[in-house]
Amino acid sequence: MIQGLLFFYLAALHSSIAGMEIFSAAIMLAVFARRDWTLLRQNRTLVYWLFALILGVLLSLWATPQEKGFWFQFGFMRWTIMLWGMAMALNTVWSEKFERRLLSVWGACLVIASLYGVLQCLTGFDFLHHDIYPQGGGIYKAVGFYSFSMSLAYAIGLSVLALSLPVLKSKPLWLGITTCCAGGLGILSAMSRGAWTAAVISVLIYVVFEKRKWILPAFVMVAAGAAGLTWWSVAFGQKILGMVHFQFDHSATVRFKIWQCYFNMFLDHPLFGIGLLEGDKLLPEYYARLGVAETFVSHAHNNFLQFLAGTGLFGFVSYCAVIFIMLRKAWRLRLSNFAWGWSLFLAQIFFHLGGLTEANFITAIVNHMLIFLWALILALEARAAHTL
Questions:
Q1: Contact 15, 145 (CB under 8 A)
Q2: Considering only CA atoms, which of 158, 147, 143, 151 is closest in space to residue 110?
Q3: Residue 66 Cα distances to 62, 264, 279, 305, angstroms
Q4: Backbone phi, then psi, for 136, in 5-degree steps?
Q5: 88 touches 36 (CB < 8 A)
Q6: Rounded distance, CA 268 to CA 28, Å?
Q7: How far apart are CA 296 and CA 38, in angstroms?
Q8: Which end of the chain lies in a sparser environment, N or C, as judged by fewer CB atoms within 10 Å?
Q9: What whole-number distance in Å separates Cα of residue 28 and Cα of residue 266?
Q10: By three-state DSSP, how is residue 291 classified?
Q11: Of 348, 345, 255, 344, nearest to 306 (Cα)?
Q12: 226-246 burial string, b = 16+ CB within 10 Å, else e?
């Protein structure tokens, strides 16, 4: 039963936030009923820091008045429970046969979601009646099966990078190459410069560490791809040339203003912050105080500023500790499982680089994908320790 739920959840990760919530809840109920807490005992340091992060969020909600409800904000932290439920589920069912099925199901879901995004990008067509915004020259900003282009960019980016080396290692090779290429096109279709940059840097990190003979060809391929897209499409060309010449459009300048305000929120509430998800409610006040001519309100568009302003130093340090632990676990996993270790490490690098210009951690769709990958790291680490 748990295997089936995991495969349904994997499909939902690429298509439906409602499905993510339903199947993740079902998985947690199934595994927690077993009352096997071995995985928690093996990861005490991570448990302690997660507890500190939860406490930091609680303190932030207690320290300052909140316009948004307590449960609306604190409820977001359910991912800390979901992480263990998902890790226990994966650890319970993992085998070579399960891994082969996982790669097949995951690859199929990734290809379908990515190609649907490409279809939206090229035609603007969407049978789910999402808003697909034109970018010029007949190109549209795809949202895939989600309702937001950033969700598509980072969910697909996490998915393809985490799957890349394991699926390329499996046979037939052409199927792995097709899967990775489809995922890359899915990232492109979302028209997110932050995701594009993060994906390129992540791949180049692997090349520098493991395939140094490919460094020059990799740079040539990136340059050729950028030149080809610029020549082919006005929409892609404007974004790429803007990146090359360090030109800041309206979206970038608004981010600078938002970052300024959120940092000042932290300065005003340095210990416990203003509430994890409360910042957008306070932005008009800070715009006025800092003399910023802007009306757009949103999250911090930066994961680190979101936690710094939202939870103060207490929560921020805890958040940084958690992400450092998970990066280190993936890095060490390379020694026992090269393909999964590297892929899961690079997926996290992609996520954190993208998180410098987008608060993708608090986006439910992307958060679900990240937590699934973290759970996979914990499960694979446990399996590796068991076989030693």
A1: yes
A2: 158
A3: 8, 18, 10, 18
A4: 105, 145
A5: yes
A6: 39
A7: 47
A8: C
A9: 35
A10: coil
A11: 255
A12: beebbeebebbbbbbeeeeee
Report the distance separating Cα 240 and Cα 217, nearest Å.
20
User: Could you tell me the pTM of the whole model?
Assistant: 0.96
Please report the DSSP string for 198-234 in residue order: HHHHHHHHHHHHH-GGGHHHHHHHHHHHHHHHHHH-H
Phi and psi angles of residue 141, each rounded to the nearest 5 degrees, phi first: -85, 105
Three-class DSSP category at 274:
coil
Cα–Cα distance between 357 and 109 in angstroms, integer? Answer: 27
Q: Decide: 166 and 344 in contact? Cβ < 8 Å.
A: no
Instruction: Report the C-alpha gap between 220 and 214 in whole angstroms.
Output: 10
3-class SS at 97? Answer: helix
Look at the alpha carbons of 109, 372, 365, 179 in this order and tell me if their dihedral is positive or negative.
negative
Angstrom CA distances, 320 to 41, 102, 172, 280, stand at 21, 30, 39, 22
Please report, as a single letter, which amino acid is at residue 162: A
Q: What is the token pair recorded at 62? A: 């207690």
| Each residue's pLDDT expressed in tens, for the chain with a length of 388 residues | 899 999 999 999 999 999 999 999 999 999 988 888 889 999 999 999 999 999 999 999 998 888 998 999 999 999 999 999 999 999 999 999 999 999 999 999 999 999 999 999 999 998 887 888 899 889 999 999 998 999 999 999 999 999 999 999 998 999 999 999 999 999 999 999 999 999 999 999 999 999 999 999 999 999 999 999 999 999 998 889 888 777 777 788 899 999 999 999 999 999 999 999 999 999 999 999 999 988 899 999 999 999 999 999 999 999 999 999 999 999 999 999 999 999 999 999 999 999 999 999 999 999 999 999 999 999 999 988 766 5
